[in-house]
Amino acid sequence: MANSKSTKSTKKPAQAQPSRRDFIVVASYAMGAVGAGAFAWPLIDQMNPAADTLALASVEVDVSKLEEGQSITLKWRGKPVFIRHRTSSEIDEAGRVNAENLRDPETDEVRVQKPEYLVVLGVCTHLGCVPLGQKIGEVRGEYDGWFCPCHGSHYDSSGRIRKGPAPKNLEVPPYAFLSDEVIRIG
Amino acid sequence: MSENQFTNPVIKWIDHRLPVFTFMRHETHEYPTPKNLNYFWNFGSLAGIALVVMIVTGITLSMSYTAHVDYAFDSVERIMRDVNHGWLLRYIHMNGASFFFIVVFIHIFRGLYYGSYKAPRELLWILGVVILLLMMATAFMGYVLPWGQMSFWGATVITNLFSAIPLVGESIVSWLWGGFSVDNPTLNRFFSLHFLLPFVIVGVVVLHLFALHRFGSNNPLGIDTKGPQDTLPFHPYYTIKDFFGLSVFLTIFAAAVFFFPNFMGHPDNYIPANALQTPAHIVPEWYFLPFYAILRAVPDKLGGVLAMFGAIAVLFVLPWLDRSPVRSGRFRPVFKIFFWLLLADCVLLGYIGAKPPEGMYVIVGRLATIWYFVHFLIILPVLSVVETPRPLPQSISSPVFGGSGSMTGAAAAPKEKV
Asked: Are A43 and B82 inside 8 Å of each other by CB?
């Protein structure tokens, strides 16, 4: 019997022929794996943001009271957002920089919708600390922007990384001007 | 130590130093199991799986639950509405408790019928009763967590049971509460203990299995295995039988979770807890109803509490109440009748527990309670002496039973299909 089988199916020994039972066993294991996976997914997915968390994903802010040179910080999705009413010298300074030489090359124009208002996430792109520079009198780093005290990253007046360990510019969140002076973030 | 027989070099290397694979093979693969087990022997493994399901869903639920009187109810509703698959996890956990008890009750009555509590399995049985008690405590505290009306008033009533204890009762109750009523400290500690106790149950289950594997499973004939001809290796014979039973169980469980998730619950628990108003008709979860009926049957506060705990306590000493040397109810014609009467009595107690304590329900509840204790305390000891059991087969393999069991060793009786 072994001989007749082996002549028929090249070099495989007779026992290697899958039987109907093998098929049932493999199919059972496969169904079991699918079932276990189907049960595992809800257990994993429950840790993702819940519907109410996602629903809180936008905030509106009126910037009419914000004087030139002042900043405000607000909370969006649990993180600080910096809105800075920039002075004309800060705007000039940000525009003069040759973007190609920067670590994360971006021109000032692509980072703002209106040059007077810079909106960035106040989260250092190095390891997530909140940079200083929002309040009058705080250290603003060597480039008139923000300075992260955790590991010494300097950001310029466009929120771009200029010096220190951070790899990226401060992130610009999605936002829109609902009117001249009301911004919706998210 | 002799060389292990594994071929995979990694497993071989590990097993030589830490023989877990040898242990697993010995206890879950080769483990000799009586070859005549019927489907009632599925319920032990089903209970184990139910425990795992409860722990897994419970841990995930705890990630979104807030144990505070101001937030608990809302956090549960948030789980139902906002948390991804939260409704599924909660319904599995909620119905899982009921199904866990269904499985365990069947497991217990299996043991009662086939005499699985008798020597040498007394400790195995006692550990099982300990698990039942832990399950009841865990289920009760879990039911408090959603902080609905039934949660709150269930907690109030059950903790007040301890006030029946003479002298120190009031102090014990206020110690349980952490205050002057069921309140935030109570909810916090119940959450903590509800999280802890399942792992204590796991520990006792390990001991339960340890004791089980000392002498192996009992079997429907209730006689000891006498050699390899009476047993089968656990794998694949009983793994596949358990898996088949599991798939049937999961089908029914899933039907409940998806189509009747609130069938075994109580609508009042979807009303937030109100310390100023008790619901008109408060009942515990169905699995406590027989005990609740016993509690209410005794017209005395302390007496009722003692009777209720006595209903469990009597199970601890069961191995010494039933002295009949014959384990299986199959060979005990009179015991068999009383077994079914006891089962009917427990169902009746469950029914009475769900009814208001008035009129006929009180009388029937008292009679059923008396019968429960009479069964264990009088009938079983007396039967051990007066009953004449039918002759036992000589071994599991010997083809003697099947007919009226008149003779041992009758030659041509139909062979078992195993």
From this structure: no
